[in-house]
Design a protein that fits this description.
single chain, 366 residues, mainly alpha, 14 helices, globular
């Protein structure tokens, strides 16, 4: 039963992650910075606070009692992740749901898999980073070599996805309209690389803030709270998300306000010539759906664990959902069969690489 619940929670989280940007496509006559920060207030402030206040007993006292260096590090990693989140929205804007998510998630998976192992081989960084294998350690074990093989598959998938984007750019060069009206391949790919690298910092923030989650768990277990099973509390990660997302809010708020002042678009918030109520509702829906990806991921992790199964379920569902929306929106309409085959192969290899790297962490190889 625990495994079934874990699959359900991860699937819901992945579906949320692959779908959250869709409501922004229904916002009318608002500039990007207006709907981005409006939805973002729900993503990074309102919903994390509501979730933590409801599910994490004594969360204020836990934060006050937590070592200040832990809070600062978790927050700072959230600031860096916030840059990735900010550029994520721009990447999807210029590349579309299908190509954008394939490239972004591929790069995030690459950095998430190799980032810490590479850093552990640099000087004395291994002494201050979370425990784990270094890059050279990966060559010494079967599971490590499988991970490296999965990374090669991933890189091929990213390259094929990028190639499909180049082919699409050439084929639609003179007919960019409708859903592809903002398609800008070069700009989008540059942004995607930045976003893909920095988006991996969210997972680093979770590791940095584990102390707070463990405090919530201890209170929940000792007081026999509901939703405690196998010594874990279903909502113990929400307090960590809260602090990380404070950092994300800081980054995005500064950038959005700067754009609003530069472009003089603040009037959009109250412009009665726009469908104000619908715009606010769609932004709230986008922001809430965005937060639900982490809310459900945290729940799924308590049921299945933080290893291979959680990673495979979450990433696979995101990739499949995002590409479903991309093809539903006809982002690849008008391209040749060869271009379609190329993006299919790219998506398929990225998905396969996630599965390979997940299998490498199974008990059979460890």
């Amino acid at each position: 039963m625990q495994a079934i619940l874990g699959i359900l929670f991860h699937s819901l989280g992945g579906a949320s992650s692959g779908s959250w940007y869709m409501p922004y496509n229904l916002v009318r006559k608002w500039r990007w910075e207006i709907y981005w920060i409006t939805g973002g207030l729900f993503s990074w402030l309102i919903m994390p606070y509501v979730a933590t206040a409801i599910t994490s007993p004594g969360w204020q006292d836990i934060i006050l009692a937590t070592n200040s260096s832990t809070i600062r590090l978790t927050y700072f990693l959230g600031v860096l992740w916030g840059i990735g989140g900010l550029t994520y929205g721009l990447g999807i804007r210029y590349l579309g749901m299908s190509l954008g998510n394939s490239v972004l998630l591929g790069i995030t998976s690459l950095v998430g898999s190799l980032g810490l192992p590479i850093l552990r081989n640099i000087g004395n960084l291994g002494e201050i980073l979370p425990a784990g294998d270094s890059f050279t350690d990966l060559f010494a074990t079967t599971s490590g070599r499988i991970i490296l093989f999965g990374i090669v598959v991933l890189m091929v998938g990213i390259v094929l996805s990028g190639k499909a984007g180049l082919m699409k750019d050439r084929e639609l060069a003179n007919v960019k309209e409708g859903v592809n009206s903002e398609f800008k391949l070069t700009t989008g790919l540059i942004i995607a690389v930045i976003s893909g690298v920095l988006s991996a910092f969210f997972s680093f923030g979770i590791d940095a803030g584990k102390e707070m989650g463990e405090s919530v768990r201890a209170i929940a277990v000792s007081n026999n709270f509901a939703f405690v099973s196998d010594g874990k509390y279903l909502f113990e990660n929400n307090i960590i998300f809260l602090v990380i997302l404070w950092g994300g809010l800081t980054t995005n708020l500064i950038w959005s306000v700067a754009l609003i002042l530069k472009n003089k678009t603040g009037g959009d918030f109250i412009d009665t010539k726009t469908p104000l109520l619908k715009n606010y509702l769609f932004c709230a829906l986008a922001g809430t759906t965005w937060f639900l990806q982490f809310f459900f991921y945290g729940m799924g992790e308590t049921k299945i664990g933080s290893g291979a199964s959680s990673w495979i379920l979450h990433m696979s569902t995101i990739i499949l959902t995002a590409n479903f929306w991309g093809f539903w929106r006809k982002e690849w309409a008008g391209v040749s069969k060869k271009t379609l085959a190329t993006i299919y192969w790219g998506i398929g290899l990225i998905l396969l690489s996630v599965i390979i790297m997940g299998i490498s962490k199974s008990e059979y190889f460890n």
